[in-house]
Design goal:
- This protein has about 170 residues and is mostly loops.
- The chain is built from five helices and six strands, in the order E-E-H-H-E-H-H-H-E-E-E.
- The chain has a two-stranded antiparallel sheet.
- The N and C termini lie far apart (about 70 Å).
Length: about 170
Amino acid sequence: MKQCASDIKRERNENHIPNIAGEGCYLKQLPAPTNTDACLLWSDGISPNERVFYHQTLCSARRAANFLTLGPIPRDSLDINLASQYDHSTELFKGKNEVVLQEETLGCTTFRRLRNTRDLSPEKIIPLKHPLHIGGLREKPSPNSVKLMNIGPHTPLTNPGYSRQTGDGNFFNY
């Protein structure tokens, strides 16, 4: 059985719509509260019955009529067993609960969310704590290099100076 560890940090989603973009898409926007103040939560200043109306759980968002599911959603117990992490050739005589363990249970990142969380982007590691990016040429090309000459049909690919002719071997200068 594979042991997966996710490096993505997640925190609780405070929004009224869960983040299930990896599972599918909405054909039409869900109703949103009229509170547009950025410093307040979406549920501040509205009545409890409006809060229940606007708030979507993971299950209610997945079962919404305008939510189109994308991805390999299991339809029955056979699909769940086939999607498990159990490998019969290497893990013989496992318990009944270990045979049906899914990737989400083991901590692997999949298309499906188990909790209403949002992903936090990992911080970029900046060497020496300085954001300056040093790039460009690794070495300075020699001005005497033949490769820096203008390209043409009669450009020699030898060092500048005297060379031998192919026909009779005489020296000539470019």
